[in-house]
User: Fold this.
Amino acid sequence: MGALRVRHLLLAAALLGSVALTPAADAADPPRTGFEESDGATWTTHEEEVEFLEAVDAGSPYATVEVIGTTLEDRPIHLVTLGAPAPRNAAQGRTEPVELHICTQHGNEPAGREACLQKLRDLAFAEDPAVIEQLTEQTILFVPTANPDGRASNSRENSEGVDVNRDHLNLGSLEAQAMAKVIRDWQPDISIDHHEYGPGEPILYDDEVLYLWPRNLNVDEAVHDLGVTFSKEVLAPCLAEKGFTSDEYGIDAVGSTDLQQTAGGGDEGILRNAAGLRHVVGILVESAVTMNLTNGPDEATTPGVQLRRVASQVATIDCTLGYVADTAAALTAATAGAPLRKTAEGKRQDTPVYLAGQDEDTTVTGNGDAEETIDPPCAYDLDATQLEAVDEILDLHGIAKVPLGSGARVLMAQPAEPVIPLLLDERNDRAETDATARETCTSAAPDTKTPPKEPRQAPPRTGAGGSGLPATGLPGSLAVVAALATGVAAALRRSAS
Assistant:
């Protein structure tokens, strides 16, 4: 058995068995969150989080904590970087696997934030050799609270009333801008966006964890397929081993029969899709807030429910850590190859631009998003006024441009090809401006501000999934009736990812 395989087995034992990581003997006792101190009775306050992160930064050689943005109410947005023997910077990190966890974009969904705080602390003070070795081979990033103002007021939106998880194309909020910088500069291979949902619906929609991948049809195929494979073939069975039920987000189902889709389409403003468009395996996870007495009497108390919600998010992080350790070569090959494939696609102008649609529809009602396409241009021209309006947004997305009179030309032949028409074409509902689409171009492709990762040689892939599970079981007519019966709840859920 090779040394690499031995290391992976050791890591799996540490992570999948939820073994508590032991702090280094010569280090101070690791800090505890307010949630832990209260045994799950109260969520960690903003002030407690700041104090906690300061202790992590001061006490661990494996962690650095930096402020990557400030909210309208002057709260810091933190990025925690983990690596051994010391954390790398972004230029160094792009040469190795990078795993990103975005926590609590919606301020009234706090369980992901608590799990991220606990896990970044455990990693920062780890003594387990397998975990430390993983920290030498990859960078792990956490944005513990992506919406600090919303968390402080226990509200879904930020202090301006913006749903940050609909703002990852236009980047109008300070919170979305901070996350865009992280994705641009670090080019993570996989990102987990931690949310919560509820109340659930018995039988139809009641699993303890829901997951979803990038469904936008402009996402690179290999990146999309890894998202499906990770969700269905890695995360779901891993969570089951840890005692948590899971299923696909946004689908009402009875057994293996998918009845109707109620959320989870290809909206480019949602982080899992926006990350996929930028060549990241973007995954949404949602823990259930609904009480589940099948878990035992502890669920009858508020702390019991809250502890279970956080535990399921911790399990998701552990499963992701194990996946990245075991599949680093295939993962980085897909994400590093995507910018090259999309640059070539933009140059050839042979692939339609999808303004609407999604990757699959497994429901018996067939009510998923319908496709809408336009022919791809070679570039978009911006006049001076348009350029001024979108210049900062282009930069945050890593979109390059070349001067054109008093404006600029944005060529499609660059890594950001999937994002460009969604942002600049007036035919897209979310477009920031009505740039002029050009069918033919003579300008050379510009240099991007951040060099893309170098592709790696990946081993042959087997069993990679990309198709949905077929709907089977109930007769079609009965399934339709059952789907219609959940219509009211579905309408309420459509905006809740």
Summary: The chain has one domain: 14-497. The longest strand covers residues 63-70. The domain at 14-497 is CATH 3.40.630.10 (Aminopeptidase).
